[in-house]
């Protein structure tokens, strides 16, 4: 499953050998259907490995968890995935198994990023950086700075983010992990975008997409198109941005990635808003909120609400707009996120609510 979704990904070369061959799939759709149908017994199998009879059992358990990463990223199985990862982490520490501990921390960083708990994700990725023995297990030492770079982006620490992502790119290149390099390039694109370097943001995202496409990636190419769509939106190329984001949306929907389906609808609403199609923007923002219900965390919800409020205000629904902004402000103030100032300014400049 993992190899079919991510051709060329080096994780498959760094897994604990198993005694028996598993199921073999030639079609990624069949493999993905099996993964989601068997999610509960698969994660139960991993939890059983957290009471290991041999070090190899625990190592195989954490490797199975990492290779089933899509269960955590989809949003639908995030809680069960997280609980399992914590069980493996506790067992690894009890057994003083550094490799398994580091890999369990890496899976937790990923699932906490998905669920919007960025402080936890950052802490776990920092622990990976401190504990990893890169010569013995290079992959966590690549993915941890990649995760720290995106956390820094969310926290508005752009210099830190750029340093982490540059380090991640260098480390992925050192071990020949081209899909990992593509991921870090697309994330670096978002740092450039946030700091006003729109041209290089487009170029970096395109580099990532070119790598993904050359290796036959489907799901990960959607992440690249998501980043490129954002950059194209900010550079004013609305038609091309919409095309990129719609391509990403199709892949995310096909891959059962509810979180990224919702976030792509949100980015499409931003394109519509920027291009003056406010009613369409409101519709897509509402669709995004529906997709993100119960997943993705409050920070993402607050951002969608802020855009929905702007779209509603543009079409004269001032009362609903202000309700969205008040909810968004409460979220961002509670989280202490910098977006609170932007939402506060929207509320301050809003016209008094009128009957609708």
Describe this structure in words.
It is a single chain. This protein is mainly alpha-helical and about 350 residues long. It has three domains: about 150 residues, Alpha Horseshoe (Serine Threonine Protein Phosphatase 5, Tetratricopeptide repeat), CATH 1.25.40; about 80 residues, Serine Threonine Protein Phosphatase 5, Tetratricopeptide repeat; about 90 residues, Alpha Horseshoe (Serine Threonine Protein Phosphatase 5, Tetratricopeptide repeat), CATH 1.25.40.10. It contains 19 helices and no strands. Helix 4 packs parallel to helix 7 and helix 11 packs parallel to helix 13. The chain is globular. The chain starts with a helix and ends in a 7-residue tail after the last helix. The model has no long low-confidence stretch (mean pLDDT about 90).
């Amino acid at each position: 499953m993992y190899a079919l979704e991510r051709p060329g990904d080096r994780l498959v070369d760094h897994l604990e050998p198993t005694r028996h061959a598993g199921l073999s799939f030639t079609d990624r759709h069949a493999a993905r259907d099996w993964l989601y149908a068997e999610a509960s017994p698969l994660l139960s199998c991993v939890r059983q490995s957290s009471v290991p009879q041999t070090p190899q059992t625990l190592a195989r358990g954490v490797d199975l968890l990492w290779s089933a990463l899509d269960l955590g990223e989809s949003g639908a199985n995030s809680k069960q995935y997280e609980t399992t990862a914590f069980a493996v982490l506790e067992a690894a520490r009890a057994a003083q198994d550094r490799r398994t501990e580091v890999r369990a921390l890496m899976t937790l960083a990923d699932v906490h990023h998905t669920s919007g708990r960025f402080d936890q994700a950052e802490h776990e990725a920092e622990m990976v950086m401190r504990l990893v023995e890169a010569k013995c297990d290079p992959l966590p030492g690549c993915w941890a700075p990649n995760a720290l770079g995106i956390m820094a982006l969310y926290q508005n620490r752009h210099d830190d983010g750029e340093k982490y992502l540059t380090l991640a790119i260098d480390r992925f290149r050192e071990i020949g992990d081209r899909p990992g390099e593509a991921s870090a390039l697309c994330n670096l694109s978002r740092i450039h975008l946030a700091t006003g370097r729109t041209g290089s943001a487009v170029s970096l995202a395109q580099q990532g997409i070119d790598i993904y496409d050359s290796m036959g990636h489907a799901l990960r190419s959607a992440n690249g198109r998501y980043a490129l769509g954002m950059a194209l939106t900010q550079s004013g190329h609305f038609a091309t941005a919409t095309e990129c984001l719609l391509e990403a949306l199709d892949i995310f929907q096909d891959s059962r990635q509810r979180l990224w389906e919702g976030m792509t609808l949100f980015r499409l609403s931003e394109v519509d808003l920027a291009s003056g199609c406010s009613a369409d923007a409101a519709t897509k923002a509402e669709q995004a909120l529906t997709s993100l219900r119960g997943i993705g965390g409050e920070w993402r919800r607050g951002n969608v609400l802020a855009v929905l409020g702007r779209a509603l205000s543009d079409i004269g629904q001032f009362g609903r707009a202000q309700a969205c902004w008040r909810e968004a402000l409460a979220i961002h103030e509670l989280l202490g996120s910098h977006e609170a100032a932007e939402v506060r300014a929207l509320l301050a400049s809003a016209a008094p609510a009128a009957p609708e």
